[in-house]
């Protein structure tokens, strides 16, 4: 059957989207598909290039270089794969220390731990909810005195908000410690006018289905350093040396991004500015309609960063009259609305029990009181009103 017919036989795209009827469940951050993806997918299939090679991954990488301002980009099968390759290219080894913000998703640190590195979890600042530069400065000075600097510092751009990468980069630069920025949640954000991740030695991005734009699964590693990305590119394709037989001086991974997914990602990337605007508008509407409730506070946006508001995060303080975070989550769930607690800090996760940490309990407090509300860019006003109605009724 010709591809065009096969595509027409597939379910109409509106069935892939959350429906607007009040009874349909409202998800936290579902993929936003418009149907505009279908011609790109059909063309990719018709071209015969479906593997992780050919024009689609290259075009996706070029578009990402444009969007991130980082000239060298490697498209990958996931954001976790990007972080893994980032660690590998930094030469991370057994026993090395990796410092990261404790308030993050597990993928930030999991590959490093699997490589035998020792994580150290630093608290976040309440100004941005991201890695606290003042704390980092003190800890780096202390580590330098002890002759035990970390192998890498991995700040995290959280819920669409970039970390203070200029400050973090300057501090790490002082001690020669490379920065691998986990920008998976903040494609489209800016930090002092520059795209999130720019300024780090390397930055990792994700195109998971829940992210602001998706490839249906995918990631990217980006850098201003061509040699680093060239090395990562080789490792992502099993570290094959150019020989008619396959010659391997080291071993790599099968981490390439399929052309089919790259084509989807490329179409989605074209809508990034619209998706940022939609998510920011949803955040503003929540703030307008809920901001007067006692004990509620919205994730701040520091003067130096423009967030995408990938997820709207609120703090609920029962001492000031708000419902508890779990009470709110359960009430929303009972109404068919998905919400999620703010990330459980890594230093509280059983998998990292005993790992050293630094700083206070800012992140722990955000976890205790923080809730992420449905923030999908295709969310309708009616759907937003359902969420608002449940929260106001508590
Ligand atoms: C989504 C995400 C990743 C990468 O996730 P993948 O599902 O592997 O693409 C990494 N770090 C953070 C903070 C994330 O939110």
TrEMBL record:
Keyword Aminoacyl-tRNA synthetase included in the entry's annotation: no
Gene3D superfamilies: Aspartate Aminotransferase, domain 1, Type I PLP-dependent aspartate aminotransferase-like (Major domain)
GO MF terms, alphabetically ordered: transaminase activity
Transferase in keyword set: yes
Protein name: DegT/DnrJ/EryC1/StrS family aminotransferase
Keywords from the UniProt entry: Aminotransferase, Pyridoxal phosphate, Transferase
Family: Belongs to the DegT/DnrJ/EryC1 family.
Matching InterPro entries: DegT/StrS_aminotransferase (IPR000653), PyrdxlP-dep_Trfase (IPR015424), PyrdxlP-dep_Trfase_major (IPR015421), PyrdxlP-dep_Trfase_small (IPR015422)
């Amino acid at each position: 059957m010709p591809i065009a017919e096969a595509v027409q036989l597939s379910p109409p795209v509106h069935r892939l989207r959350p429906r607007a009827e009040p009874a349909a469940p409202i998800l936290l951050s579902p993929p936003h598909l418009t149907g505009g993806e279908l011609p790109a997918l059909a063309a990719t299939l018709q071209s015969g290039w479906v593997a992780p090679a050919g024009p689609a991954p290259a075009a996706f990488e070029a578009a990402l270089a444009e969007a991130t301002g980082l000239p060298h980009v490697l498209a990958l099968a996931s954001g976790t794969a990007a972080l893994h390759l980032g660690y590998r290219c930094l030469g991370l080894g057994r026993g090395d220390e990796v410092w990261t913000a404790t308030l993050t998703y597990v993928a930030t640190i999991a590959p490093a731990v699997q490589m035998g590195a020792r994580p150290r979890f630093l608290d976040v600042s309440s100004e941005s909810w991201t890695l606290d530069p003042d704390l980092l400065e003190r800890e780096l000075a202390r580590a330098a005195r002890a002759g035990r600097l970390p192998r890498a510092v991995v700040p995290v751009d959280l819920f669409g908000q970039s970390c203070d990468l200029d400050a973090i980069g300057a501090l790490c630069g002082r001690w020669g410690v490379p920065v691998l920025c986990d920008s998976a949640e903040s494609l489209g954000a800016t930090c002092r006018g520059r795209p999130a991740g720019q300024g780090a030695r390397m930055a990792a991005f994700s195109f998971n289905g829940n992210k602001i734009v998706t490839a249906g699964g995918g990631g990217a590693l980006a850098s201003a350093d061509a040699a680093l990305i060239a090395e990562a590119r080789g490792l992502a394709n099993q570290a094959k040396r150019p020989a008619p037989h396959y010659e391997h001086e080291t071993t790599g991974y099968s981490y390439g991004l399929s052309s089919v997914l790259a084509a989807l990602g490329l179409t989605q990337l074209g809508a990034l500015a619209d998706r940022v605007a939609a998510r920011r508008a949803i955040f503003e509407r929540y703030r307008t309609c809920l901001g007067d409730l006692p004990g509620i506070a919205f994730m701040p946006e520091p003067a130096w960063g423009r967030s995408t508001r990938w997820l709207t995060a609120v703090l609920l303080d029962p001492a000031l009259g708000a419902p508890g975070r779990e009470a709110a989550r359960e009430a929303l769930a009972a109404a068919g609305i998905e919400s999620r607690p703010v990330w459980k800090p890594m230093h509280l996760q059983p998998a990292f029990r005993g790992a050293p940490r630094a700083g206070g309990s800012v992140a722990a407090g955000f976890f205790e009181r923080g809730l992420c509300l449905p923030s999908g860019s295709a969310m309708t006003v009616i759907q937003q009103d359902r969420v608002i109605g449940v929260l106001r009724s508590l």
